[in-house]
Amino acid sequence: MIEVKNIVKSFDGKEVLKGITTTYETGKTNLIIGQSGSGKTVMLKTLLGVHVPDSGQIIFDGRDFAALTADERRDLRTEIGMVFQGSALFDSMNVEENIAFPLRMFTKKTNKEIKDRVQQVIERVNLVDANKKMPSEISGGMQKRVAIARAIVNNPKYLFCDEPNSGLDPKTAIVIDTLIQEITHEYQMTTVINTHDMNSVLEIGENIVFLKNGKLVWSGNSEEIMKTNNEDIVDFVYSSELLKEIRRFHNNQK
Ligand SMILES: Nc1ncnc2c1ncn2[C@@H]1O[C@H](COP(=O)(O)OP(=O)(O)OP(=O)(O)O)[C@@H](O)[C@H]1O
Predict the structure, then answer these.
(1) How many whole angstroms from 253 Cα to the centroid of ligand 1?
(2) Burial 33-64 (b: 16+ CB within 10 A, else e)
């Protein structure tokens, strides 16, 4: 669980996060949604420790990040897996080598232990036949699986994903969402996902926070987002006619 308490972050005197308070729950897919410029990326980078908040607290399972020593922060960072927008794979490494990278960098595991663990996650994300391929030889969906495998290879407690569906076709996007949700449940990770994708909101939105101009204006789950009359949500989520129709259909079924 990550508790976020009254986080304020400014750049050049301009407040970008204006007192965010929320809880990202363990074993759930926690989504941050909002229009472009609402502060989603700054929020995720603040959780990662890339940005230092002006005030407020971020508490990782009882550990207040600001109160940790340098060594404790380094340890905590090894508990975080990150899936970057666009996958960010190393072009010169094959699939196996990409996935092994965090184990070689941050652990003292033997070659045999690394090989076994990499094989385990390759099987988990269904990449068995691609393990010797280079990133340029595989599809965008497979690259995303490699990025997920690399993020979970060191058994993180926390998984952060920045727009994991960007650039994928809708069908592949759902497969990737489902994979992230399944591993979140399986490994009981606290998963935080930045997304624009309304399919993701409806499919895997177990705990959603909606940001508008750096403020948290709504939170709830995918069931609740279907029913809410909050104007900001209706405006944002149901901007397309198709989604409006789905919403009417869903609410008539209840
Ligand atoms: N390093 C920075 N220095 C100055 N301003 C920044 C910095 N990072 C972000 N901002 C500003 O903070 C605001 C929120 O940006 P952020 O990238 O978090 O939005 P977002 O919701 O992630 O948008 P998008 O969906 O387009 O990625 C924007 O006005 C942006 O210009």
Answers:
(1) 39
(2) bbbeebbbbbbbebbbeebebeebebbbeeee
Rounded to the nearest angstrom, the distance between the alpha carbon of 202 and the centre of ligand 1 is 25
Residue range 56-98, pLDDT digits in tens: 999 999 999 999 999 999 999 999 999 988 778 999 999 999 9
If phi > 0 it is left, if psi is from -120 to 50 it is alpha, else beta; for residue 188 that is: left
Q: Does 110 sit in the ligand 1 pocket, CB within 6 Å? A: no
Q: What is the ipTM of this complex?
A: 0.96
Sketch the domain layout of the chain as residue ranges: 1-79+156-218, 91-154
Judge whether 46 and 9 are in contact, CB under 8 Å: yes
**Ligand 1: nearest atom to the Cα of 196:** 25
Q: Which one is the CATH code of 1-79+156-218: 2.60.120.330, 3.40.50.300, 3.30.1490.100, 1.25.40.10?
A: 3.40.50.300
For ligand 1, whether the C-beta of 214 sits within 6 Å is: no
Q: CA of 243: how far to CAs of 69, 183, 227, 234, in Å?
A: 47, 28, 13, 10
User: Ligand 1: does its nearest atom lie under 6 Å from the Cβ of 86?
Assistant: no
Global confidence as pTM: 0.91
- Whether residue 21 contacts residue 216, with contact meaning beta carbons closer than 8 Å, is answered with yes
pLDDT digits (tens, 9 = 90+) for 125-156: 998 889 999 999 999 999 999 999 999 999 99
